[in-house]
Amino acid sequence: MPKYHFEIVDDYRLEDPIGQELHDADQAMTVANDIAKQIATDVVSESARNVVVIDDSGTEVYQTPISCEGKA
């Protein structure tokens, strides 16, 4: 199975050196969306942040915003 890395990006990049083996890019997108929702629930931030999915070849395959709208 291919491996995908889930990095958190704002003013800095929090790298995921281990990654996760998943069936395909569609499953990686689902995981990224779940990560973004969980972070938005747990952490309030004013800066723009994203979960970026990188495949094992180093190519960015997906990006989703971490939206804290409506939280204060």
Write the topology of this structure.
Layout: E1 3-9, E2 13-14, E3 20-21, H1 25-42, E4 50-55, E5 60-65
Antiparallel strand pairs: 1-2, 1-3, 1-4, 4-5
Written overview of the protein:
The chain has 72 residues and is α+β, with helices and mostly antiparallel strands. The chain is built from one helix and five strands. Strands 1, 2, 3, 4 and 5 form a five-stranded antiparallel β-sheet that branches. The radius of gyration is 12 Å and the shape is globular. The model has no long low-confidence stretch (mean pLDDT 90).
**What is the domain total for the residues?**
1
Number of extended strands = 5
Uncertain spans: none
Using the alpha-carbon principal axes, give the shape: globular
Largest beta-sheet characterization: 5 strands, antiparallel
**Average residue pLDDT:** 90
Count, helices:
1
Share in β-strands? 25-35%
Radius of gyration: 12 Å
Pairing-aware structural class of the strands and helices? alpha+beta
Give the oligomeric state: single chain
Distance between the amino and carboxyl termini: 40 Å
* Fraction in helix: 25-40%
Helix/strand order, N-terminal first: EEEHEE
Descriptive labels:
72 residues, 5-stranded antiparallel beta sheet, 25% helix, 5 strands
Quick structural gist:
With 72 residues, the chain is of the alpha+beta class. The protein has one helix at residues 25-42; strands at residues 3-9, 13-14, 20-21, 50-55, 60-65.
